[in-house]
Amino acid sequence: MAKTGVLFDLDGVLIDSERLYSGFYDNLGELYNIEEENFSLAIKGSTIEQILGKYFPSPEASADVLRRINEFEANMEYPMCEGVIEFLSELKSRGIPAAIVTSSSDNKMVKLWKQHPGLKAYFDTIVTGDDISRSKPDPEGYLLAAKRIGCNPEDCYVFEDSISGLAAGMAAGCVVVGLATTLPADRLQGKAHKLIDGFAGFSVDDMMEVKRH
Predict the structure, then answer these.
(1) DSSP E strands: which ranges in the chain?
(2) What angle do CA 45, 47, 53 make, to 5 degrees?
(3) Cα of 213 vs its chain's centroid, Å
(4) What is the pLDDT of residues 80-111, one digit of tens each?
(5) Torsion sign over Cα 197, 14, 75, 183
(6) pLDDT of residue 212
(7) Is-contact 28 68, C-beta < 8 A?
């Protein structure tokens, strides 16, 4: 039997931070008169470099926005999503390797581990925005994570909440489970092999039953 692996996005999947980010970026959009409708949604899944390059290209704006982001993340709470620790514990007890694949920076991850010291032990590898050259919807991050945990991408399950993340998981050839935590379920319809509301009450056996068709 092929070795199964599980690959998780971070924000909106493992940690309930999307609401906080949405508020922050929408305020930033207003401050800079960004004409993009629903700015926080438009940039979801992008790296900080991509956001700065597209919306805040001048050196002054880039420096100001980066300072604001660092300040915001330094003081940010990272609450765990309901049911996550139970699900990760079950994976661990069954010897199923797991990875995080996020566009977040290494810097942010250091702060996350400080707030949740036991969390890192559940994962065999962490792929951050600093490890890749092409962010989601490109599958590079998921392909790298699968390789690092010694699994074929087609034997991996991906958990994602964003449209670009779901597309990345699909492009990598993984079995993709969409979480309707950030976007409503109807926005994710047809973009994943299964949709769930979150990890509460969702078991590893439930995951194993998700099929491509």
Answers:
(1) 5-8, 98-101, 125-127, 156-160, 175-179, 194-196
(2) 120
(3) 24
(4) 999 999 999 999 999 999 999 998 888 889 98
(5) negative
(6) 76
(7) yes
